[in-house]
Each structure stands twice: as structure tokens, then as C-alpha cells.
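Hey, resending since the last one bounced:
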Amino acid sequence: MALEFARQCAVRRAKGVGKVKTTSRVFPPSKNGEHIKQTSDLHNQWRPALQALTMPYRPPYNCRHTYATICLMSNMNPAFIAQQLGHSVQMLLTTHAR
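The C-alpha cells again:
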């Protein structure tokens, strides 16, 4: 899917066509090309996205734990996961590897 999206972008660029109308991302970059940085911006998009997917509400922060757990279950390097989350390896394993 990502490869096909990249191909479509390349075709649009070659044709000189402007903006991307669709994206594979749930929260695409804003019009100036930056990803969400403000928590308030995330919350304004998070709840409607969950509602559109008919999923029960859960705070976005819960995704950190899910991400860490999936990475650990996939036998990824704990040092890499800790770096992704901004933790020490000890903190990662204490918090997420129970």
C-alpha cells in the first residue's frame, strides 16, 4: 500500500499536479507539511477518527503502551524501542514488560 502511494506521488510530481488528496495516514501532515505537535490538535482529530471507525474512546496516550507491547512481542531490540518512546531500557522493561 505504501509503495503504491509513493508511486502515485511520483506520477503526480512528474505531471506537475499539486496536492495529495488521499493519504494512507490516519493523521496526515497539515498544509505546511508538519505532523501533529500539539496535544490539543491530536485530540481534535482523535475522537472523530475513533467514532468514524466505530471504536470505543480511549486516550491517545494508550497507544504508547500498545506500541511498546507489540514491539516487545515481536522481539525487537529493547534499546531501539526505548529510544522510540524516549525511555531508558530499564524504564521500558519496568513499565511495559510485566
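The chain has five helices and no strands.

Sorry for the duplicate.
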